Automatic annotation (TrEMBL):
GO terms for biological process: DNA-templated transcription initiation. Residues 38-109 form the RNA polymerase sigma-70 region domain. This is RNA polymerase sigma24 factor. The keyword Transcription regulation applies. Keywords: Sigma factor, Transcription, Transcription regulation. It comes from Spirilliplanes yamanashiensis. It comes from the Bacteria. SUPFAM superfamilies: Sigma2 domain of RNA polymerase sigma factors, Sigma3 and sigma4 domains of RNA polymerase sigma factors. The gene is rpoE_5. Transmembrane segments: none annotated.
Length: 193
């Protein structure tokens, strides 16, 4: 059975990134059903990853909408797994860039701070870690890392991305991701021992 056309059964059988790559290719040909299936399969995962970086549900919803609009328009530019690109990594790269754009827009239009009594948004997981809520020693060790090493840890540990997806997100080769992850672990181990 073709997992792309196999309906709900394919989900229970374990869908691979190759399946998503096929859906993206079908989207490039204007297949609306493929787009709907791609959204159904990947939007929950993207929403979770976005929420780890942004606690504002309105921004997350806007970023998801902008992401899938960009996917529909740019599906033909997806190079595919033939060149080592992951469909999920490609989607996450689009979403991450849209989130950065949303943060920039928010910074430009930022109004006065929230009035007393208004609920504040919860910080993202990496903000909690860096603020010391997971332990002052860990926060200090994380702050001591270079931004490049922190980015790799954030993507791989907090966002749960693979080496390939981290490579796509950060725009560096997989070997560089592996090297930075190793250096970060060594530096954290030394700082915490």
């Amino acid at each position: 059975m073709d997992p792309v056309r196999g309906g709900a059964a394919a989900v229970y059988l374990g869908v691979t990134d190759d399946d998503e790559a096929q859906l993206v290719r079908r989207c490039a040909r204007g297949d609306r059903a493929a787009f709907d299936e791609l959204y159904r399969r990947t939007a929950p995962m993207l929403a979770v990853r976005l929420r780890r970086r942004c606690a504002d549900e309105e921004i997350v919803a806007d970023v998801l909408q902008e992401t899938y609009l960009a996917v529909w328009r740019a599906a033909g530019s997806f190079a595919g797994t033939a060149v080592g690109g992951s469909a999920v990594g490609w989607l996450w790269t689009i979403a991450a860039r849209r989130l950065v754009d949303a943060f920039r827009r928010r910074a430009r239009t930022a109004g006065p701070p929230a009035a007393a009594g208004e609920p504040a948004t919860a910080p993202a997981a990496e903000e909690e870690a860096l603020a010391g809520r997971l332990g002052p020693d860990l926060a200090a060790a994380l702050h001591a890392l270079t931004p490049e090493l922190r980015q790799v840890l954030q993507a791989m540990v907090l966002d749960g991305l693979s080496v390939r997806d981290t490579s796509a997100l950060l725009g560096v080769p997989e070997s560089t991701v592996k090297t930075r992850a190793r250096r970060a672990r060594i530096q954290l181990r030394e700082a915490l021992s």
